[in-house]
Design a protein that fits this description.
heterodimer, A: about 425 residues, alpha/beta, de novo design (two linked rop proteins), five-stranded mixed sheet, disordered C terminus, B: about 575 residues, Ubiquitin-like (UB roll), Alpha-Beta Plaits, Rossmann fold, 3 domains, 18 helices, binds flavin mononucleotide, binds iron/sulfur cluster, binds FE2/S2 (inorganic) cluster
Chain lengths: ~425, ~575
Amino acid sequence: MEVKLLTRNFDRPESWTLDAYEKAGGYRAWKTAFALEPEALIQLVKDSGLRGRGGAGFPTGLKWSFVPKESSSPKYLCVNADESEPGTFKDRYLLEKDPHAVIEGILICCWAVGIHHAYIYVRGEFGLPLFRLRDAVREAYAKGYLGHDVDGHGFDLEVTVHRGGGAYICGEETGLIESLEGKKGQPRIKPPFPAVKGAFGGPTVVNNVETITTLPWIVEHGAAEYRKFGTEKSPGTKLFSVSGHVVRPGVYEIPLGLPCKELVYDLCGGISGGRTMKANIPGGSSVPVLTGAEAEAVNLDYESLAAAGTMLGSGGMIVLDDETCMVWTLAVLEKFYAHESCGQCTPCREGTGWLRDLVYRLEAGGGKSCDLETILSITRNMMGTTICVLADAAAMPAASFVQKFRGEFEAHVGAGHCPMRRRPAHFLTAAH
Amino acid sequence: MAEVTIQIDGREVTVDAGMNLIEAARRLGIMIPHFCYHPGLGVDGNCRMCLVEIEGQPKPAIACNTFARDLKTKDGVRPVHTVSPKVKEWQRAVLEFLFLNHPLDCPICDQSGECFLQDYYMANGQYVSRLDTPKLHKRKVVDIGPRVKLDAERCVLCGRCVRFCDAVTGTGELSIVNRGNRSEITSFPGLPLANDYSLNTVDICPVGALTGSEFRFRKRVWLLSSTQSICTGCARGCNIYLEHAEGLAYRYRPRENMEVNTYWMCDAGRQTFQPLNEERLEVPEERGKEIPIFEALTRAAQWVNEATGFTGGATEGGRFAGGSVTGGNSAGGNSAGGLSGCAAGGERDGSRVLVILSPVSSQETLFAAKRFAAEILGGAGVAGIGTRPPGVEDKILRKADPYPNTAGLALLGLARDPEPELAKGGRLLVIVEDDPLGERQRPAWMQHLAGWERVIYLGVNRNATSAAAHLALPVTPHSECDGTYVNFQERLQRFRKAITPRGDALWAPELFRRIAVAADPGIHAGRPFGWLSFNALWKDLAASEPAFAGTEVAKLGGVGQTLVTRAAGSAIDGVGDAAGGPAPREA
Ligand SMILES: Cc1cc2nc3c(=O)[nH]c(=O)nc-3n(C[C@H](O)[C@H](O)[C@H](O)COP(=O)(O)O)c2cc1C
Ligand code: SF4
Ligand code: SF4
Ligand code: SF4
Ligand code: FES
């Protein structure tokens, strides 16, 4: 069962234009929001139960309330459009198909928190999403929805679209801020948290594109309406970007709590080629993997996934069929993390490279059985010991792959090569 | 700031609420291993070596970014553990990560022996290695600047060097480029690490990644002894460790003194140790010919007596046993004070004698020279200004004044240009440690020197002035004696004897005393040359010189102190006003 709150405009012709957006009732929620006192607006978002869609699932209204009302330095909003997590491609749809909804969400957030300058930090590799967003911002300025005295309401708001340089770590909120300030993108130690001291030293809200884009709907229909979707603790809808071995990969908006089975088998048309689901990474590459059986039994909401030992994350679901080599898959993932670690923290800088080397060696058949214990111990030493959670993000897949698919790893050691005979054309194997 | 009592490893300490756990633990003598934190550079939180366990917190916390106030909860203050089994395991893990791509070239590494990695491994690591993946290779022996070499493989990427160039010198030459384990320290193209403080990066680099080009491969550090000293490069008087072996100085390293130089010193200052080793005047020379010390002392005494018209004592060296002049400080015992024929020998006339001093000298040398001029040279003129050209001053440490003791010279009332008196010529000129004929100093004085019948030079090195003198006598530099300087803040700072004096070199006050005794055997029984030691001299100095009244040199400590009279002076004046003068309100 799909629902269309966030994706309501996706099918309209030229949905990304101001014209289409206004025809569909756009920029009305903003007027409703402006009629409310900021505190009431924050309360509304709190009541809706909206949680951050960037990965951590932090309650959005609560995050806003940490920002001091009075501040001697300017406050900022940073909209996180760095979407770089393998398997995650939902924000790009929002930017491509409904950029004005993002802008309207920004207006709502900035009014609630008292912000007069918002940045949208866009992943460096994005083309179309960036162009559509830029055009939309230009249109909104021209129409008076942005800039001085927004829409005649006596509220000023500047929006700057900032294109990143193409680094996963600039999606981490403080890495994003550093990069935005023109520095090398690497996370800051916390405390202080961005809500207290963020961009350019001012209190800063960092929110994911999807989080921001949900706001107009909530304002327009109210918290109670929103809560009609989803579960008690995970209200509302969520975009899932499904990739891998399914018949119809793509972005689906579902009410939270939907059985995973329904998403995979009904909406996505099941496993391609009539094969079976060996594994499922439900929330983007950083979350622990589920076996096919575990995935079939789980519901897609924060609590159920946590109970199953994994996370909802960004909603980037990767489905793997029974012909996939799990060692190879992990090798590819660990290569990504080793490449993307910013390199500040010792455990992450060295641990990601070490994991990658060990997993590649195993994949190529050169591993030893003790390597599995080493991998598990490396992951333990990486988790919870670093500045940001990229180290955890690299460790969690490694630990869960080895724990849940140990037999496959051992088979590689035993055979001295990949028994799945499904190897990537990779430099390590090519060297043989 | 509010204080908090916290508990570390079961011991309590009360500290400022804003103090971090590394510093708080230091107060208890507990050393929390760390790489990236440095008190002069602040918290960066990248190395993760300082992980500690805080009761009630499941995750490890970094001690550098945990402050005493953070431990407070409504139910009390959370205890901290730095050596618990969990902490040991975390530390072992971080060390293992650091060694993954480390080249393990300790046997040829200059840092060996003072390397944090080695120390922490010996303390916490010592596990069986399971590192069997190929190591990454990075650049080695890179001239990252004219005085510093980089070995990127040894680097733990703590960023201290980068932060030093950003925060202290503001020159920003260094940066970490690339990501992940390909990260590497580098200097910006066309901007080598050449700032005037670049060698501090070598000191703060916790490992052997940055080494001083000059010190590399010269000495194993565990063979060096370290002595508290003062840099003589300028009027700042940076506190340093003078590091030496087998009678040679090998390097200067900054020593923390928050009032003077904080944690740093300049590159130029570090190079000023060369004259301690090279071109030393080791043996007295008479017109360029080496002569025995006893002969030199007798000659000096004879010249002194002739120049001052003194007949009561010796007029020729032969009258005195050489032993009593050179050998014993304690010869005084048998030369009865009653032998005051000396006094009857007549007044000394110092009108044709001049003593030139220099702010390069220690306070003790200046004081002894002043006393010598007054008592033995018949009240001869004594003055000095230092003839070196001024250096370049900056906003960090360096002062333009290239001398360590200009303030000390002034406080004795001797800071005058001696040139007018010098130009007149006369019978005996005594130059103490100044080198006016040296390069870029006062070459014109060469003509003035010709107007003097005899020139005696007391100094550490052979130089243009020693060569021009009729008699050159070796004295000890600050590495070879105890002493003090007064820096530009009028802070009296102490340096300690590190090395046995070279050759015949004598502590200058002792040299003056021996010449005095040789010139007038009656004199050594008590004042004015009663001091045989540093402490005895200071008792005299503090009693005789108003600017130093009340100074207890034994209590100076490692970081020195602003002169008691100066610091207290205004307070005493204030009290006087209030007590003696009319009350301000009634006035
Ligand atoms: C390594 C790393 C990468 C991240 N990348 C993204 C990203 O691309 N987009 C995003 O919205 N959040 C990302 N996050 C999460 C952000 O740090 C932050 O929690 C989020 O933007 C907050 O927005 P939300 O509360 O609306 O979810 C990342 C976190 C980490 C540790
Ligand atoms: S955990 Fe990794 S990515 Fe995050 S700050 Fe540390 S080194 Fe950088
Ligand atoms: S060179 Fe030394 S000080 Fe600089 S980052 Fe590397 S280890 Fe740290
Ligand atoms: S600033 Fe002056 S005293 Fe300090 S190290 Fe440099 S020369 Fe020596
Ligand atoms: S000293 Fe605390 S993380 Fe480096």
